[in-house]
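Researcher: We're teaching a course module on how sequence relates to structure. For the next exercise, students receive a sequence and then see the predicted structure as tokens, so they can try to spot secondary structure elements on their own. Here is the exercise chain.
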Amino acid sequence: MKFLPRGRWAWVRAIGFFVVLAAAVWKFNVHGLAHLASYAPREGDVVFQSLPRGELVDAIEGVTNSPLSHCGVVMRDADGRWVVHEAMGVVRETPLYLWIVRGRGARLDVWRWRDIEGRDLAALRTALNRYSGKPYDFRYAPGDDEIYCSELVFKAYRDAFGVELGEWENLGDLNWRPFEKFIREMENGALPLGRPMITPVGVTRSPELVKVY
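Model: And here is the predicted structure for the students to work with:
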């Protein structure tokens, strides 16, 4: 068969490549499997992760002085599978396992609303679905036409239960100075220091939440 390696060293190189590939896949999956084995999801859980490095992720984490660059809400889908409602490209559902292994180092932090017991989770599902399909907001503005991750969490809980998870902060009160060039590029030269934002780490500071994982 022409696609098979020819010669001893070709086989050695091929085997070495697949060993490295298998090790990389195993490294990420073993962390994901460990999380799934030890984390007991509940609908309404707010999950946080560190996304793979990039200019935008570095700016999010740097401006907020936190390694948490993304978050979403855990729910069951129509088939009973665990998914995360998130704003990534658009507001969408992502299988929980895929969501975990996508993160940097398969990091997973989980926070739970203290008053979730006995609540009508259908209301939360309706609130999340209301934003489904909306595009990601790269400007992190407070409007509803575009939505970013922590904004989705905040607004879904607010709409469903009237509870506010976290506090909005102005960009000017965050660590924006090292990232001024990047911010201006995203804003076509503007520097909106008065713009209110709800950040992933800002959500975790809510006294309404308790860390469960």
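Model: If you want an answer key for the exercise: DSSP finds seven helices and eight strands in the chain. The chain has two domains: 1-38, 41-211.
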